[in-house]
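hey team, just a heads up i'm posting the complex here instead of the shared drive bc the drive is being weird again. everything in one block, sequence lines first with there labels, then the predicted structure for the whole assembly after. its three chains so it's a bit long, scroll down
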Amino acid sequence: MMKTPFKKASCRVDFDYFLKGSVLKETVESGCTAVRTHFVVESDEPEENVLALIKNAKRGCFAESMVTTAVPLTSTIELNGKAVSMRGIAD
Amino acid sequence: MTKTPFTKAKCRVEFDYFLKGSVLKGTVDSGCTAVRTHFDVESDQPREKILNLIRLAKQGCYAEKMVQAPVPLTSTINLNGEAISLEGITE
Amino acid sequence: MINSPNYPWDESAVPGERPIDKPEIRPGGYEITMLAEMETQGEGQLKVGRFRDFEVFCDEPPRLGGEDRYPQPLTYIAMGVGF
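-- predicted structure starts here --
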């Protein structure tokens, strides 16, 4: 949509994540506490064109939006062909 | 860790996502509004044991937690070898 | 073939007429559902993921009972952020 050519674009992504609790006590807990992205671009285009492109690309990035916002997740479970309800996990 | 064998485990995942706004006005917005998972397991093990395994697996799933919880995301950008600051995108 | 509901298949793929060639997102934007399926493969940690006609695999390192043949599941999310 934006005709802003670039020679190279690369991205490094770091996730900090944890797993804790007890399998035996059924208190397993996991999550991700931080995400860092580092974006490297090479282009001969005017800087403000490239920055506008990056801004649109970041705002249009579904994956970044999923990381930064809380999305409702619903689960259903089937065991041996039969629907199962599990408190706190599946409806 | 729970040593609970199963014959088959399958999961279907659905994401509802959107892209809206204007490229020209710089108001592009994207995101994910809902995620649904359907888990299908076949096993000869006692039902209680399998349900416990599923509960622990879901509690320990980094990906599900990332979807459900907002995670702080920080971005840095290099343009032609120089660090740049972009309002609303980088710190 | 695992297809995503509401995917805008009706949009042109002809260069010059594609949505990507236009200066603006279409009025009203897009609301799409992505659908993917994953399945275990045998007794190890190998799993297959299917989306449309594509297949990708994930595994775990040996310390988690896998054979380290493919990236771990979370890696695909990290890559998704970078892609």
